[in-house]
Each structure stands twice: as C-alpha cells, then as structure tokens.
Specification:
The chain is of the alpha/beta class. Helix content is about 35%, strand content about 25%. It has eight helices and seven strands, in the order αααβαβαβαβαβαββ. The longest helix has 14 residues. The mean pLDDT is about 90.
C-alpha cells in the first residue's frame, strides 16, 4: 500500500526538513543493537531512510523497503546510502530478492508504518511476510498508536501470524499514547 503523499517527489524531498528531530528513533536503535544484538535488519516502510542509515552507520546489514519510489529516491541520495540495500515495493519485493539469505535478525516498523495498514487483510499479510523474512527466533519491533488497533487486537494478530509477543512497552516519546511491541518469531 502506497501513501500518496510519500509518492510525490516534491513532498518526499521536504519530509526530513519538516520532521528534523528524529531522536525518537534512538530508542529503536538501542533495542535493535544493544538489546537484541542484531546483525541484519529489515526496515519495513523505511521512507526517506533515516533509521536504516542510523543502523548501517552502526555496522549492521540493513535492507530498507518502501512502496513510495520518491521516498526511496531521497534515501538513496543521502550520505552513507551505499551501505543500505534499498528496495522499492512491499515485502513481496524483499521475498523475491534472492540476496536476503537465511533471514533477518530483526524487522522494524517505526513511526507511522503500522498505521498504514487499515485493511485487516493487508495487515495480516504484512505480518505473515515479516515472519517469513525473519530468521528462526528473529524479532519484529513495531510501534502502534492507540486509535488504530487496540493492544489486544495487535497481540492477537501477531499470534495469528506466528509471533510470540513477550514484550509490550510504552513508547518513550509518547507514553500512554503508543506501544512498542517486540514479537519473536515462534518456531
């Protein structure tokens, strides 16, 4: 699913300038690198690549995927972009990419990515694809806001897709208004 705003080249080009403080991503960086010890990460809905580039700068093998070509173009033009594998499309593009190997240690959906999936079939399909792309025991880290799905609905959809949901936290930058889910691939 492509959000039309991020497909427009003029809007994608100013996205980072309109949201310059991305310190909210630091907590996800600590989760991925320090807590989970990931070596490979799939950044689902990578947008203009800010988080993917943060992780690549830490030495991780990062694949960023986004259906909005304008956002991917912005990401590819940033310093350090050669350290990230950028794929335009949905998770189908990642599944079709033969270089993904044995699976990712971690897949992420930060910021507004989980809210893009308003159709339950699209949401279930995305979670299923994320699970298939993770190595056995890999972790999906996602952020979700309260008005889109209840915590119980998210936990249920994760379990249905084949995840264990051992850890749900308040988002540190929006406590009480967002959750961060760390769901391990059940094998």
């Amino acid at each position: 699913m492509v959000d039309a705003i991020f497909s427009e080249p003029r809007l994608a080009a100013v996205y980072d300038a309109l949201d310059p403080d991305r310190s909210d991503l630091e907590v996800y960086e600590r989760i991925v690198v320090d807590e989970l010890g990931a070596r490979s990460v799939l950044d689902i809905g990578c947008g203009t690549g800010t988080f993917a580039l943060m992780l690549a700068a830490r030495g991780l093998a990062v694949t960023g995927v986004d259906p909005a070509s304008a956002s991917i173009d912005v990401a590819r033009a940033k310093p350090g972009a050669d350290a990230v594998r950028w794929l335009e499309g949905t998770l189908d593009a990642v599944e079709a990419d033969a270089s993904t190997g044995s699976g990712f240690d971690v897949a992420t959906m930060t910021a507004n990515v989980a809210q893009v999936f308003v159709d339950e079939r699209d949401w279930a399909s995305t979670l299923g694809a994320a699970r298939r792309l993770l190595r056995p025991g890999g972790t999906l880290v996602l952020e979700s806001r309260l008005r889109f799905r209840s915590r119980e609905a998210i936990e249920s959809s994760l379990e249905t897709a084949g995840f264990e949901c051992p850890d749900v936290r308040d988002a540190p930058d929006r406590p009480g208004r967002e959750w961060v889910f760390l769901a391990r691939r059940a094998d």
